[in-house]
Design a protein that fits this description.
- The protein is α/β, with parallel strands linked by helices and 310 residues long.
- Helices cover 50% and strands 13% of the residues.
- The chain contains 13 helices and 7 strands.
- The strands form 2 sheets. A 5-stranded mixed beta sheet has the order 1-2-3-4-7, sandwiched between helices.
- Strand 5 and strand 6 form a beta hairpin.
- The protein starts with 6 loop residues before the first helix and ends with a helix.
């Protein structure tokens, strides 16, 4: 069975890698004055964990935004990702914001919740009081990704918008086009390492089937060639990491494990989620088999062809 997707971790990585673009995409009004002179710093989560209790939701992302020129007081932005809208609690979010505000000695906190999908029971406001008085009023900014029209962002210069295109709203028959637009968005990133990282993100949330992957290769040959090139680099990098791990640990298993893990990632890229039999086959393979399959994956049209079954 393929490993479950860690949506929280995926979005945490995205926000921490691109904090400015994340703020501009998920909180455009609040981010209007966030230019290149602004300093954005992730709040230390170790410190928060000691103070906030309730097992501190490690995958929330607090960011502190400072204006060095003093034109605005510092703001704290709190991102929370909710995969299942039914589990969202506005009371929990409110408590967390109050604790964070007390810890950082500020009342300037902007809570932002990213929902992968919407729900009819999501509460957007909380008011605590009586018939005569309201003693606490709380709300937050929300972004429901599967309700955002992908066509509005397919040419965006904001890399966060482009990377998250597959999570937005579009007709299924346009999946291949959205996939291509998201991949082209990675050209906004100069780092090859980050391109590889978010090619994986895009592939994970697109989940093309075999026919759609073939259609993508026919319709977007340049993008398909680029993706293959990046995959080859990832594979070469994984081999090197595996060799280094093997040398450091003095064991052949270190190298094999590294190469097996990278090959599994490439198989998922090309053919989608893998069954437990395929995963076990790769993890138990010999070094020669891993080498042969790694070469076969570049031209294979099916999983069977990778493993030499015709």
């Amino acid at each position: 069975m393929p490993e479950p997707i860690s949506h929280d971790q995926n979005f945490k990585n995205l926000i921490l890698d691109y904090p400015r673009q994340a703020l501009q995409f998920f909180a455009p009004e609040e981010a209007m004055e966030i230019d290149d002179n602004v300093k954005i710093t992730p709040v230390r989560q170790e410190q928060l964990k000691n103070r906030l209790g309730d097992r501190f939701r490690e995958l929330d992302v607090p960011l502190k935004v400072d204006w060095p020129d003093g034109r605005r007081a510092a703001l704290l932005f709190l991102f929370e990702e909710e995969t299942n809208p039914g589990r969202f609690s506005i009371h929990r979010l409110g408590r967390y914001c109050l604790d964070l505000a007390e810890l950082m000695e500020t009342d300037r906190v902007v809570p932002i919740v990213i929902f992968l999908k919407g729900g009819t029971r999501i509460r957007s406001q909380l008011q605590i009081g009586s018939e005569l008085h309201t003693f606490l009023s709380f709300s937050y900014l929300s972004s429901v990704l599967n309700e955002l029209p992908a066509d509005d962002y397919k040419d965006s210069t904001n890399i966060v918008a482009r990377i998250t295109l597959p999570t937005m709203a579009y007709a299924r028959e346009r999946l291949v086009d959205i996939f291509a637009a998201a991949l082209r968005g990675l050209e906004l990133e100069p780092s090859t390492e980050k391109r590889l990282k978010y090619m994986d993100f895009i592939d994970t949330y697109t989940q093309l089937d075999d026919n759609e992957r073939k259609l993508f290769a026919r319709r977007y040959p340049n993008e398909d060639e680029t993706m293959t090139t990046w995959s080859q680099r990832m594979l070469a990098q994984g081999r090197q990491e595996g060799r280094q791990e093997g040398r450091q640990e003095g064991r052949q298993e270190g190298r094999q494990e590294g190469e097996a893990n990278v090959l599994l990632r490439q198989l998922v890229h090309r053919f989608g989620p893998l069954g437990i039999a395929v995963t076990d086959k790769v993890r138990q393979a010999s070094p020669d088999e891993l080498e042969r399959w790694a070469s076969s994956i570049l031209d294979a049209r099916t999983l069977d062809e990778v493993f030499g079954v015709h």
